[in-house]
Amino acid sequence: MAGAFWCIVEDDRAGRPKKVTAELLGEATRLARQSGGHVEAVWLADKASEDGLKQLGEWGAVRVWLLEDAALAPFRSEVWTPAVAELAGKEAPQAIFGAVTSRQRELLARLAARLGVGLAADSVAFRVEDGKLIATRPVYAGKLLSKITWAKPPWLATLRPNVFKAEEPKAGAVPAVERPSVAIVPSRMTLVERKEEVATGLPELTEADVVVSGGRGLKGPENFVILEELAKVIGAAVGASRAAVDAGWRPHRFQIGQTGRTISPKLYMGFGISGAIQHLAGMRTSKIIVAVNKDPEAPIFKIADYGIVGDLFEVAPLLTQEFKRLLEK
Amino acid sequence: MKIVVAVKQVPDTATQVKIGADSKGIDPAGITWIVSPYDEFAVEEALRVKEKRGDGEVVVVTLGPERAKEALRTCLAMGADRAIHLNDPAWEAADSLAVSRALAAVIRQEGPQLVFFGRQAIDDDMGAVSTQVAEFLGWPCASWIMEETVAADASSVRVARQVEGGLEIFDIPLPCVLSAQKGLNEPRYPTLKGIMGAKKKEIRDVKAADLGLGADGPRLSVVALEGLPPRPPGRILSGEPAAAAKELVRSLREDAKAI
Amino acid sequence: MKLELTEEQQMIQALAREFAEKEVQPVAGRLDQEARFPHETVKRMGELGFLGIAVPEAYGGAGADPVAYVLALEEIAKVCASHAVIMSVNNSLYCDPVLKYGTEDQRRKFLTPFASGQKIGCFALTEPQAGSDASNQHTLAVPDGSRYVLNGRKAFVTNGREAAAALVVAQTDAAKGRHGISAFLVEKGTPGFLVPKVEDKLGIRASDTAEFVFEDCRVPAENRLGSEGMGFKIAMSSLDGGRIGIAAQALGIAAGAFERSVAYAKERKAFGVPIGQHQMVQWMLADMATAIDAARLLVWRAATLKGAGQPFGVEASMAKLFASEMAMKVTTDAIQVHGGYGYIKEFQVERYFRDAKITQIYEGTSQIQKLVIARHLLGTQ
């Protein structure tokens, strides 16, 4: 199985690959190392950049397949899929990895159908065993883990952001850049407009290293400001539980949980969140979990690494102060 | 306008799921089954399109064992007009691709202008089927939609698709496939009248052979289903709030190195 | 014998549970404290079909059966007994008799809007000086051409203030005693139909309980339900059905208090273990569960008989007697399981305790139920 591990590049739509691409390349590098394969990036964009290409090399791609065409933006799976499928047909990669993002989630699913192969969506771990790849995926609201394998290559998978480690960047590594000619089919879909969310000055929920999240215990929408202040100090994104979203305190896009976003930050801090299964499904793969709740029996304490049983209205501002003091040092 | 909604019956989130004897699936004993919540948004949206236009038909389809009929009846009670049950032992171990192929085949037979899915089923959380059905049909698709308006002449639909950092608004010609994200609507309950009327509505059983689908080996196979590895026990920081906060910040910095 | 719910019954039960938990639970505590009638959720009950469950679709109902009715009532009472009694009175004491005894015109006017939930109805039998002794009616209805002129007072009318119409029982021929009693459908707003007082109660505080006064209230003769002299029979047969409803309400109150007790027993720790690990608490919970199940079987049996068109009066009385006494005991024990917290409003078990009491009183006190049961046993009337 000395084939290529392809990683689809997730970029910021302005020619710069995003951090999650480094995570994909990192995991692919480790798997390729175990199996004697090599790592390649596949970049579809209306406009790539030299810096971006270099970046992909430093992150571990020995080759970049660059499909640059104005028709590739905005993303439409019906345009991207045949392009990648045509290339895959010619190059026969061993695996194709994408990120769990709005674009690649759709691309990889469609690609799997087009190529007639299996897709392990939202994977959180991989293992190579007897020349086979085994993916681990959370199922049933994250209550169980399913280990699955493919009947035949290419092995398609999407990887949950923030779960896989990037490799140390190889300074000066220059990837071979190929500009293959593939057919770009016209799209039937027309972009009318893109509505950007009001900038909060805080990182995007699914991409953030630190997430501060509030639940019913906040008692009202006006109190989220307490968490925002803490978030500003530590550069965190602010999320909410379903209870807080259903009560109309925060827009749905901030909901963490089974019917919201799934996050895996390095640090998750929940305030006034009891820890319903619903919510845990969306954050239990966080590396460090902190819970602040006045109810000592709140289920979230069962999975928390650190807990404070107390009033969040007292504890949160104290934490803001302490972090400020620490980070100003 | 004819609308097809694909739904899946899944264990209720609150149900405790246990690993089955084969270590590859769950033990079905004692499970409460429900219509996957995202699929309820899909059913609701289809009903709203029909109601707004004042005409049309909502056909709900599922693939699953006999018990999945309950899910269909729930959708009929909500107001769907009829149901199709892809019910064949041949699909017992169907993976996403096999399910998608079967759904695409039945949708092709039905010939609707619009197909709704939930963004994912909350059992295996794969979230691939809607897109794969679109691929097999050769139709455009949009996932995770938050808003939807069918043009008056039923030639296209305008959708708002949730993406990182915002919404993308697309015009898509019909027929197409859409998957519903939470926030699209608030699903209605079935009414008592709806429940009583549901048994008078048609549920048609469809076998693999009816769709001209032959045996096709799975593309994915489950190696094992496992419980979560235990998390190391946590530490409760007691004492005065100020001291606890101080200790937490120190621990996060020095022990956990999370800040 | 088969103890199996049909798929429709299960779906109706699930619908009632979901509605109660999602829409009623968030407001139940506050409505109770403020003694406020739940207009919004009652409207929703109407939209969903809970206010005319067993009424045929042709008259705006859901066309379900009495078993579905008690299943729904139990689920709603588990969360809020006030919603349950509002529903029970409209279904059993108002819609049921109008369906059974009403003319086609009466059904169109006095049933369809009430079964479909646009309006709610009530039942006015009890008088300030005649509760258990219901045949001793002081309210008079005197014929006057094409009308009857009503005079008198009615007490403790559930839904009294909110109802758009009342089934009123009055004496049309005092000389004939109970055979001189007739029933009338009286619209609110009829001159001389007054609602001078709404009671402040121990429990079911979100439901309204009113007093009616009739002062030369002229009711068209076509509003008489059934023939003259049939009123007492109509009232008693309505109460037979009503008792199934109240039994289901009591059952739900007990089941709700019990569920909270089980949850609490798993969480609350004493002497280092959850209190549910202590045998004393285990015994209480086991007794509660057994009593609730016994009541449920009685309720289901009475409802099944009613649905099959068989006599069910004595079975309804047994169900109501047992379920209401059981509810009082179970809610008392539920507070005990909760200890001091049970006595505090925040934990809501005290609401169940207060709500349980009325089930031993209205639609025939426990003592009256015993009388009904004993008379049946001994073949006396």
Secondary structure elements and pairings:
The complex is a heterotrimer of chains A (329), B (259) and C (381).
Chain A: E1 4-8, H1 19-35, E2 38-45, H2 50-58, E3 63-68, H3 77-91, E4 95-99, H4 102-115, E5 119-123, E6 125-129, E7 132-139, E8 144-150, E9 155-159, E10 176-178, E11 190-196, E12 210-214, H5 224-234, E13 237-240, H6 242-246, E14 267-271, H7 277-283, E15 288-293, H8 300-303, E16 306-309, H9 312-328
Helix pairs in contact in A: 3-4, 5-9
Chain B: E1 2-7, E2 9-11, E3 33-35, H1 37-53, E4 57-63, H2 69-78, E5 82-86, H3 96-110, E6 114-118, H4 129-137, E7 141-150, E8 156-163, E9 166-173, E10 176-180, H5 192-198, E11 203-206, E12 220-227, E13 235-236, H6 241-254
Chain C: H1 7-34, H2 39-48, H3 66-79, H4 81-101, H5 104-110, H6 112-115, E1 121-124, E2 140-144, E3 147-158, E4 165-171, E5 181-187, E6 193-198, E7 209-220, E8 224-225, H7 231-267, E9 269-270, E10 273-274, H8 279-307, H9 313-338, H10 349-359, H11 366-378
Parallel strand pairs in C: 1-4
Antiparallel strand pairs in C: 2-3, 3-7, 4-5, 5-8, 6-7, 9-10
Describe this structure in words.
The complex is a heterotrimer of chains A (329), B (259) and C (381). By secondary structure, chain A is of the alpha/beta class. Chain A has two domains: 4-178, 3-Layer(aba) Sandwich (Rossmann fold), CATH 3.40.50.620; 210-328, Rossmann fold, CATH 3.40.50.1220. In chain A, 30% of the residues lie in helices and 27% in strands. In chain A, strands 5-9-4-1-2-3-10 form a seven-stranded parallel beta sheet, with helices on both faces. Chain A has a five-stranded parallel beta sheet with strand order 13-12-14-15-16. In chain A, helix 5 runs parallel beside helix 9. Chain B has 259 residues and is an alpha/beta fold. Chain B has two domains: 2-211, 3-Layer(aba) Sandwich (Rossmann fold); 234-259, no CATH class. Helices cover 28% and strands 29% of the residues of chain B. The longest helix of chain B has 17 residues, at 37-53. The radius of gyration of chain B is 22 Å and the shape is globular. Chain B starts with a strand and ends in a 5-residue tail after the last helix. The relative contact order of chain B is 0.17. The model of chain B has no long low-confidence stretch (mean pLDDT 95). Chain C has helices at 7-34, 39-48, 66-79, 81-101, 104-110, 112-115, 231-267, 279-307, 313-338, 349-359, 366-378; strands spanning 121-124, 140-144, 147-158, 165-171, 181-187, 193-198, 209-220, 224-225, 269-270, 273-274. In chain C, the strands form three sheets. In chain C, strands 1-4-5-8 form a four-stranded mixed beta sheet. In chain C, strands 2-3-7-6 form a four-stranded antiparallel beta sheet, covered by helices on one side. A two-stranded antiparallel sheet of chain C has the order 9-10. With 381 residues, chain C is α+β, with helices and mostly antiparallel strands. In chain C, helix 1 packs parallel to helix 3 (66-79). The radius of gyration of chain C is 21 Å and the shape is globular. The chains are: A alpha/beta (329), B alpha/beta (259), C alpha+beta (381). Chains in contact: A-B, B-C. Chains A and B meet through helix 3, helix 4, strand 5, strand 7 and strand 8 of A and helix 3, helix 4, strand 7, strand 8 and strand 9 of B.
